[in-house]
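Fold it.
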Amino acid sequence: MPRRPVKRVPQLLAILVLAVTTAAVWAAWLGWDQHRDVHPDGSVTGPYEAWQVIGLVLTLLPPLYWAASRGYVAGAVLGVTAGLTVAAYVDWSDDSSGLFMVGVLMVMAGSLVTTVGATAVIASMKKRTR
């Protein structure tokens, strides 16, 4: 019986470490860019460029791999998803339209699906090499 709580501690630590790391990576890649670009034809884009989002995703792959390859599958999925969701909420909560929660929910759903897929691939690759 005592082994069960001991097994949960590393999983909880993985969730916490990945959530904090993910929020910090969001701040580094996306947190500083808050302006939208208005083009000559009147269209508006932004505030993020594609290279910023690609950089965010590529920077999150090593910590995700670290957690998933060590068997902290729930930590990898929940940590990254929670970190991205909280970071998006904090970054976008000053939106005057009130639609920022739609974006936050989309970030949550997209990051959940993506991290589940990536974690499953990493975990299955690790099992094959053992």
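The mean pLDDT is 88.
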